[in-house]
Amino acid sequence: MPRDRSEGNQAFLSRRGFVQVAAAVALDLPFARWFEQWRALGHRPQAARVTPFITPNEEFYLVAVDPSFRPAFDPASVESRWSLELVGVDGRRGTLGYSQLLARATNQTLYTFECIGNDIGGQLIGNARWHVIPLKSLLAEVPGGVGGTHSVLFRGLDDFYSSVSAARALDDYAFLALRMNGAPLPAAHGFPARVILPDLYGMKQPRWLKSIALQRSPQTTSFWEKRGWAGEVPVKTMSRLDPRDARPSGQPLELTGIAFAGERGIRAVEVSLDAGENWTRCELLTPGSRDVWSTWRYRWERPTAGRYTLEVRAIDGSGTLQTARRHDSYPDGAAGYDRRLLEIVARK
User: Fold this and answer.
1) Which CATH class is domain 53-226?
2) Less crowded by CB within 10 Å, the N or C end of the chain?
């Protein structure tokens, strides 16, 4: 089984690491706190291949405060060892068992998770099909109901926590997920239950849930916000080129990749073969649905020998062009066009 994309093998002062050090100094963060941020961000070199629309469970990225965390039970023992606690605004509590929740997870939805620490062209993003319960219906069963609720706090078995506005948690596109690509949630990806919230980075959406609490206070927070990262911010429009090895000239070449814009969806993708001087519209292989990435391709009919600087950019569902200005992931998500060098070699 491929290794989880968790703790990185990058050099200590990689580009991301250097930026994180600078941010830590600027915020006067203790080194230990900065190190836990650096440790959680996963990385490994990306293989040259076409990105599939559905990410296999074993290839889905993993970023966590403790990337080695796994629950102390499995599907065979979960019923006797776990239940989801629901806490009302007045402190009253109720619980739901795994079998109760699983029986209700009959809806299916596609959803793309992206880590807020994902770099330009990075791999910390994946798309899956989830079996879910609408969160709105679940929260209506919290003792005392949702009246007076202004925020909702989610806590995980790994002590990770995040709260969001009541409007976000009660959105029609907010869910509790229990299955991933037809199987129970993998131990690394939130078993027995994880939350799915619209148009947010993964850092706001806890896995391994143990409790959901309704709160009167409108103030929201999370584990990573306490460490300088942004809070309830929408995902930025991004696009990515799949890596390509050197190719012989004169043969057609397909460029492929993904584009993502959260709830705005993707309207179009464009690629440049000359470092942004000229742009050509690509073919969208999958529709531009909200909260789901789109895959795309461009057929380059007869590339000639030379070195090319490829770039890609996306247009979201509202018609807004992805920003070209490059911005590192800290503190509110990366921005800028993905750029890759490709060599077309002369045929012998």
Assistant:
1) alpha beta
2) C
